[in-house]
């Protein structure tokens, strides 16, 4: 559990403290996720709701690994304009999806820590493995849908830029822009809100434990 706590601290710093990821934090995050996935395979680690959320958090870094592989492939092989635009958009959207999944799962872990600290008995029926798996599945589904929407929007932008104004891609471009504008705006506001909520939760937990 100490290793898992260190991993959570690393992830909180990477996604909720640092304003943007850098090569060092990304590399450490990938190593931490790989190590955590190995630890969670051990029979010594009990299956609890927190470990389910941490496991899903570690798996989110598969998206980062995929983006690294994609970047290497793009730089190694020459690609056409359309393929390069698709790869560039996919690279950015994979990293965005990883960030969104990680922030949401970290917030779920923080909320569970809050329940354990202040409502241990009352929240026992809520803090189940089944609910943790359901929460992880919902987060992955929503963020995957968001990623697909962003990817379609980026592709249509590239297509409409090279197409005549009467091309049907223009109509699709306007529709996709409107459809993706809302989640793009909400994701920025949600990121700020999650940072504030997480700080508040751990502030409350820290001073509650200090008084004890």
UniProtKB/TrEMBL annotation:
One of its GO terms (biological process) is positive regulation of Rho protein signal transduction. The chain crosses the membrane at residues 12-40, 52-77, 97-119, 185-203. It is a multi-pass membrane protein. Pfam families: 7tm_1. GO terms for cellular component: plasma membrane. PANTHER family: G-PROTEIN COUPLED RECEPTOR, GENE 5127-RELATED. This is LPAR6 protein. It comes from Centropus unirufus.
């Amino acid at each position: 559990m100490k290793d898992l706590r260190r991993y959570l601290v690393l992830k909180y710093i990477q996604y909720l403290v640092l304003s943007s990821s850098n090569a060092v934090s990304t590399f450490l995050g990938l190593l931490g996720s790989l190590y955590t996935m190995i630890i969670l395979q051990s029979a010594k680690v009990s299956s609890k709701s927190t470990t389910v959320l941490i496991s899903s958090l570690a798996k989110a870094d598969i998206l980062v690994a995929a983006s690294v592989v994609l970047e290497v492939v793009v730089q190694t092989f020459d690609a056409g304009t359309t393929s390069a635009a698709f790869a560039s958009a996919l690279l950015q959207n994979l990293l965005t999806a990883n960030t969104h999944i990680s922030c949401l799962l970290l917030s779920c872990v923080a909320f569970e820590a809050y329940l354990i600290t202040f409502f241990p008995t009352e929240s026992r029926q809520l803090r189940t493995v089944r609910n943790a798996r359901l929460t992880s599945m919902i987060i992955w589904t929503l963020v995957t849908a968001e990623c697909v929407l962003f990817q379609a929007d980026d592709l249509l932008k590239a297509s409409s830029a090279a197409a005549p104004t009467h091309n049907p891609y223009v109509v699709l471009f306007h529709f996709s822009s409107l459809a993706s504008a809302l989640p793009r705006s909400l994701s920025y506001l949600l990121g700020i809100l999650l940072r504030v909520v997480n700080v508040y939760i751990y502030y409350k937990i820290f001073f509650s434990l200090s008084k004890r």
